[in-house]
Design a protein that fits this description.
The protein is of the alpha/beta class and 133 residues long. It has helices at 4-12, 20-28, 40-44, 59-62, 75-82, 95-107, 118-124; strands spanning 16-18, 33-36, 52-53, 87-90, 112-115. The protein is globular.
């Protein structure tokens, strides 16, 4: 048996991670695709301005519908087009995004990175979030 933190630690050895500060820098220097894997209610409570919400539970089934490739009707072609971009996955604390990163790697995504510390760290750093009005 393993605890959730032990399993997350194992997964982190197999994926790429960046800090929230590194993500903020990337957001300021060009087109960056951020996927928020939290539940819709969590996303609505505050999210990174350019992020798109794909909850962890449906990520693998819905990734091909990302707005960056929304014009593609062929699922595999859409995934190939999306794989040309760097994808940054964020959750509340970094655990779900680590698992989601691993899952996308298994689907064949090669430029996918988890954001360590997640939205909790993003907010602790005082970085801007968007809340619906």
């Amino acid at each position: 048996m393993k605890t959730s933190p032990e399993l997350v630690a194992e997964v982190r050895k197999t994926i790429n991670e960046i800090s929230t500060a590194e993500l903020k820098d990337k957001l300021q220097h060009g087109e960056t695709i951020v996927i928020d894997v939290r539940e819709p209610g969590e996303y609505a409570s505050g999210h990174i301005a350019t992020s798109v919400n794909f909850p962890r539970g449906v990520l693998e089934m819905k990734i091909h519908t990302h707005p960056a490739v929304g014009y593609e009707c062929d699922t595999l072609q859409a995934m190939k087009e999306l794989n040309k971009h760097e994808l940054f996955l964020v959750c509340q604390s970094g655990g779900r995004s680590a698992f989601a990163t691993e899952a996308l790697q298994r689907l064949g995504f090669s430029k996918v990175t988890s954001v360590a510390g997640g939205m909790k760290d993003w907010q602790d750093q005082g970085f801007e979030i968007v809340k619906p009005s």
